[in-house]
Amino acid sequence: QLQLVESGGGVVQPGGSLRLSCVGSGFTEDYYTIGWFREAPGKEREGLSCIRMSDGRSVSADSVKGRFTISRDSAKNTISLQMNSLKPEDTAVYYCATGPLSYYTTRNCFTSTRATDWGQGTQVTVSS
């Protein structure tokens, strides 16, 4: 059974940094994509970045380019999201997610309905 587990959330001051991790298990294919989303109170779930585990191809949303960096460790089925220059508006629950090989790809990974398997989420709070 496919499982994703996030960690690394917490409280940080504006301008600070956090590194989120997502460990996956139960994958039966090699060429899958894992993405990061966030959901703030009263807002729709937003796709941030995703990465293809086979070759590291990644895509990031304009809202986080230059501040957030996604990376992977294929041997450990782990992806990370390094978040720098955090702002209060980055406060949200952050999720990692994935989907079937040909259904959830780097071309559509910001569409939350494409992801079929989700982690439990980790809270990030940016506040002074």
Give the structure's gist in a few sentences.
By secondary structure, the chain is mainly β.
Task: Please name the defining characteristics of this protein.
single chain, 128 residues, mainly beta, 7-stranded mixed β-sheet, 4-stranded antiparallel β-sheet, globular
User: In terms of structural class, how would the helical and strand content be classed?
Assistant: mainly beta
Query: What is the averaged pLDDT score?
Result: 94
Largest sheet: 7 strands, mixed
Order of SSEs, N→C?
A: EEEEEEEEEEE
- How many angstroms does the end-to-end distance come to? 40 Å
Binned strand content: over 45%
Number of helices: 0
**Based on DSSP secondary structure assignment, what is the total number of beta strands?**
11
The helical percent reads: under 10%
Could you list the spans in which at least 5 consecutive residues all have pLDDT below 50?
none
Overall 3D form: globular
Report the C-alpha radius of gyration, rounded: 14 Å
Describe what you observe in this structure.
- The protein is 0% helix and 46% strand.
- The protein is mainly beta.
- Strands 2, 4, 5, 6, 9, 10 and 11 form a 7-stranded mixed sheet that branches. A 4-stranded antiparallel sheet has the order 1-3-8-7, with no helix packed on it.
- It is globular.
- The chain starts with a strand and ends with a strand.
What layout of secondary structure does this protein have?
Layout (H helix, E strand, L loop, with lengths): L2 E5 L2 E3 L5 E8 L7 E7 L6 E7 L5 E3 L7 E6 L4 E6 L8 E7 L18 E2 L3 E5 L2
Parallel strand pairs: 2-11
Antiparallel strand pairs: 1-3, 3-8, 4-5, 4-9, 5-6, 7-8, 9-10, 9-11
